[in-house]
Amino acid sequence: MNQKWITVIRLVSVHGKNAHTLIGNIIGNHCKELPGGHNVRLFATTFDNGKQFKPSKALIVTKLSRLEFEQQRQPNLSRNELEKNIRHRGSDYDVMLNFHTIHKEFERKIAQCFNKFGVEVKLVNRLIITKEHIKWADILVPVGGDGTFLMTAGRASVFNPTVTKTPLVGFNSDPLRSEGRLMLPKKYSYDPEEAIRRIVKGDFKWVHRSRIRVTLFGQNGTVPQATDLHENSFQCPVEPTGAESLSELDSKKYKTSKMFMVPYLALNEVFIGETLSARVSYLQMAVDGNETFTKTKSSGLCVSTGTGSTSWLTSTNRLSVKNVKTLLEIIESKNGSLHNVNPSSVCKEYNDRLVFPPDDPRLCYSIREQICVGVWPNPKGFESIGFAKTILIKSRCLDASLVLDGSISYPFNDGAKVLLEVQPDDSLLTISID
């Protein structure tokens, strides 16, 4: 928790796309550590602050409403036939149609606001976003909820994996039902024109969100086939590339001759576990270059960024007020009076400490429902939750998956290995207002 690191080294905008090369020559490509234990956070962008950013083309990435999803599942049905089918099974078609209309009207409102400030707009559904769409845009604008934001960021990491980043800023299209933590504050859902005015005028702050780079080993030269879970197992939009041969040193280190760099970057988390949730997940872990693996049995492993720490990581590890109250009663019965301690306050502080900054270069791993028979409370020298710069994981599972941001899934079965790490160049450039 007290690790020292330099948050940002930014390059002046005049260097443009050559900025990363210039800084790399100054520091050295392999210089990840500075004297005193400091980490270098290297962000090369073509604009150093909001004032220098002048968007002229905005790509609005729209969510897939429940009604659109139903149409995708049954493309041969007319709208009337689809309505009859939905009502027949007992679902509320009127509610589906109402929320679909709300989302579509909000998308049009966002487009109109950008047009008002002279910004050209294209709308594209997140299902059919392409490399050409990403290249065209000066700014990516996911409209919907956190799922749409994550999918847009994932596609951007594949289609535009350059140092010059295309910024993202998201709008929550349904603030009454959705929290939308990755989106702008809810007040801008009611007044999007003010948010867009500030974006166009440069009245905002940049936020660099760390993402997880995933490298798979031990696939024997076979490229694993990805599945897109978010869109009902539709084919992933990126064609897989071949496995690469490792150097002699790395082959010895990872005990395999081939590696495959996953083309997607995880903004929230990477989850690894058996596909059948009732089956125990057998995994071996080594953190920060440790050559000794620790065996774990659990309900799966969640490795989170600072951005994702408000999501699955917190849900897995948070305490309820009732839990805290019970603990305080036990402590009081053994050590005296604790009448002045407020359980709600203790609970909030504990849960707040699970969250860490989105630009933090560390990963937080959490072993879910760890089986600790004979090694209670944790395997020797290894906590069930902790921070690390790199995490190497070996599978001993029968039918497991490695899932990025709850969307892109790769098979991860017995013998496969994966390295999870954060690289400064992989950070996502986003906009923050207020």
Provide tags for this entry:
single chain; 434 residues; alpha+beta; 12 helices; 23 strands; globular; disordered N terminus
Please give a structural write-up.
The protein is 28% helix and 25% strand. The protein is an alpha+beta fold and 434 residues long. The strands form five sheets. Strands 11-12-9-22-19-14-15 form a seven-stranded antiparallel beta sheet, with no helix packed on it. Strand 14 (281-287) and strand 15 (294-298) form a beta hairpin. Mean pLDDT is 81; it is low at 1-46.
Q: Average pLDDT value?
A: 81
- The low-pLDDT segments are 1-46
Shape category? globular
- Reading side by side through the largest sheet, how are the strands ordered? 11-12-9-22-19-14-15
Helical segment tally?
A: 12
Report Rg.
23 Å
Number of strands: 23
Distance between the termini: 26 Å
Helical fraction: 25-40%
Structural class by secondary-structure content: alpha+beta
* Content of β-strand: 25-35%
- Could you describe the largest sheet, including whether it forms a barrel? 7 strands, antiparallel
Structure described in brief:
This protein is an alpha+beta fold and 434 residues long. The protein contains twelve helices and 23 strands.
